[in-house]
Design goal:
It contains 5 helices and 18 strands. By secondary structure, it is an alpha+beta fold. The longest helix has about 50 residues.
Length: about 280
């Protein structure tokens, strides 16, 4: 009797009363399997999308890395390069307002960072310099270096040929174990690793700056190479002594006149075919 009066007993009576009225859900096995397969495909698709997103993130990260690296070199390295091709000249103003006049087929390379602390550049080819007074200014080539404080001078570095001419002030030239001081109107020249004996030149003589090339007792090979630079032609020779010395010059305006200026004094002939010139000896 006491059991019937307890709350637990009353709860059991309610469960017994309502249990027969609850319908057990019927399971469609085929439908359940189809639903499971559909969910699996969706899950796989989601996973695939996530993987692709990660690939995109990596691409963006790589692009940012390249951007930051480029920015670093632009801001902190800041190397500048100026170059001319055949038959082209160029005027370049440096950070200290010094001027460089590049001859044909030439190049200068320098770093803007801390330029005033150490004015230095690398030259390939030929250039005329007007250097503002200040700290040491150095022109580096793969044969020798030129050092000044403020002056005007010309440096020429071609294959087997190195030349420095001083037009104003004093220039210091270092070549291997040789250190030479060049005052105005003096020249230092190295041909095939041998220092030439000529010491002076006429500063009034026209130069490539006036679109004219002049030579004094210069091997023909270097004269023809300069025609190639100024006109963009390729020159070949047949039975020619390229070591024969030439004194004279040519203007940079007409390749026919230039070739005549060189070949006639040396009793040579030439023919032009397109951008190719052949020089040959007509003497028996």
């Amino acid at each position: 009797m006491r059991l019937k009066k307890t709350e637990a007993f009353k709860t059991l009576e309610k469960i017994a009363h309502y249990a027969p009225q609850i319908a057990t859900p019927k399971v469609d096995v085929q439908k359940a399997l189809a639903s499971l397969k559909l969910k699996t495909k969706k899950t796989a698709k989601k996973n695939k999308v996530v993987s692709l997103n990660f690939k995109q993130i990596f691409k963006y990260a790589a692009a940012l890395l390249v951007l930051f690296t480029s920015g670093y070199f632009l801001l902190f390295n800041n190397t500048s390069s100026f170059k001319t091709t055949y038959a082209q000249t160029k005027n370049v103003t440096l950070p200290d307002n010094s001027e460089v006049f590049l001859n044909a087929n030439s190049e200068i390379i320098y770093t803007k960072k801390n330029w005033e602390e150490g004015r230095s550049l690398t030259l390939k080819g030929e250039a005329f310099f007007k250097v503002q007074k200040g700290k040491t200014f150095t022109v580096q080539t793969n044969i020798g270096s030129v050092t000044v404080l403020g002056t005007q001078f010309n440096v020429k570095k071609r294959t087997n040929y190195f030349e420095v001419k001083t037009y104003e002030g004093l220039v210091s030239v270092a070549y291997k174990d040789t250190l030479v001081k060049l005052p105005k109107g003096t020249i230092f020249r190295v041909i095939n690793d041998e220092i030439a004996t000529k010491k002076t030149f006429d500063i009034r003589e026209k130069s490539w700056l006036q679109k004219e090339s002049n030579f004094k007792s210069t091997s023909l090979r270097f004269v023809l190479a300069e025609i190639e630079n100024q006109f963009g032609y390729t020159i070949e020779t047949e039975n020619i002594n390229l070591n024969v010395l030439y004194s004279g010059g040519f203007k940079h305006t007409d390749v026919q006149i230039a070739m005549q200026s060189v070949t006639i004094p040396l009793q040579l002939s030439y023919k032009i075919n397109g951008k190719k010139i052949t020089v040959f000896n007509t003497a028996p």
